[in-house]
Amino acid sequence: xxxxxxxxxxxxxxxxxxxxxxxxxxxxxxxxxxxxxxxxxxxxxxxxxxxxxxxxxxxxxxxxxxxxxxxxxxxxxxxxxxxxxxxxxxxxxxxxxxxxxxxxxxxxxxxxxxxxxxxxxxxxxxxxxxxxxxxxxxxxxxxxxxxxxxxxxxxxxxxxxxxxxxxxxxxxxxxxxxxxxxxxxxxxxxxxxx
Length: 194
Hints:
The protein is of the alpha+beta class. The chain has helices spanning 77-92, 178-193, and strands at residues 8-12, 15-21, 27-38, 41-48, 51-60, 69-73, 97-100, 105-108, 119-125, 131-144, 147-154, 160-164, 170-173.
């Protein structure tokens, strides 16, 4: 469980909005998609208000063989800092404003129309060895420090699971064990019934 908190909450068109912070103090505004009591505790399912942005690049696994290339998600803070201005400029051409939000990169603005030739399937190798498919919408390509980068947004929203304490603060955690997975399923099941 992580020590990320939110103490700010407001309403927008009847939907509660909370601000969560990562360990670096960066903020991410989220809608409360669903809330459920589970084993005496209050859990919330949160969805970022802005678009989730993923930047991918090619990583050469074997310097001697160019054919051994793997596409990876750029997650290193130093690399993101180095390429951020270039990525921001490219997205600005699409009327999207890139932000260094808590937990992930986001962008505000309206997405270009979704077209079949702009969809990409990305297979992610999870920590437990499972391969999970993610469908992404291609947004742009840019070059920084002679490296090619591609910008995407997931077609399925990224969600956060959190526990709301009696003080109103929300502790964010990832579904990493069976209990948290059961809570997540309960939240998703409840929202499907609405």
